[in-house]
Amino acid sequence: MKDIINTYDKASLIDDIKIVPFDVSKRYTKPHRHNKYLEIIYFTKGEGFHHVDSISYQIKPYIFFVVNKEEVHNWEINTLPKGYVIIIKERFLDKTLDKYINIQLNKLRTLQKIELPNKDASINALFKVLCKEMEQPKPQAEFVEGVLKALLVKMMNYSYENTSNDNAGKITGFMELLIEKPRNNVAFYANALSLSSQNLNQLCRKQFNRTASQIIAIEVLKEVKRLILFTDNSISEIAFKLDFKDVSHFVKYFKRHTGYTPLQFKKRH
What we know:
By secondary structure, the protein is of the alpha+beta class. The chain has helices spanning 90-95, 99-108, 121-134, 141-162, 166-180, 186-192, 197-208, 212-230, 235-241, 247-258, 262-268; strands at residues 17-21, 38-45, 48-52, 55-59, 63-68, 73-77, 82-88, 113-115. It is built from eleven helices and eight strands.
């Protein structure tokens, strides 16, 4: 019996990530959303504003911006910009088995910007290497993941310098635990963080504009799909692993969110 996921198509990851220099023709844009999971923008030159929903952030080197797919944003850049863009589709996180990348990208979802006190030559070097590799006829997925992981380490180190409040720590802890131990149980995460379920819901609504249950559902459904497609676990075993009350509840939950029963989903894929 295979209990863990141990094989997947690394090459297909490349189709779900884009890493390019910032397009200078995008200096002024209308408010819009992206049908992507996450967008990371890094500026080494340029001045102006980045408008996200109802908040305006000043653009000044050196700075990262993080845009989630549900957010409405637009650029107002008054001088010639220079920098890089990473666009990561949700399928990328479904395919990568590197939990560190999952954890770091989910941490980034809680941030709007990361400011650097001065130029960091290693960040520029990492972006250049990533762009160069993505230009190859057959980019190596393992290489891209490795360099991306290094870049995320640098970003998160600077983010710790930018944010140190307790709520940010609780959200980070919640996302880390959710990735490591996906369970359909709000109380489990609230207890682990020494919070009430109500307080965890309030934090999630403030940070993500979603309830804790909705955030949990995103990660639980990803894990369910992985277990259905890449292990020999039975439907009842999957339900038990992810803390559902019973198989019937699990099947109804999955169908409500995906439109398919677990068995129908497996047959389709």
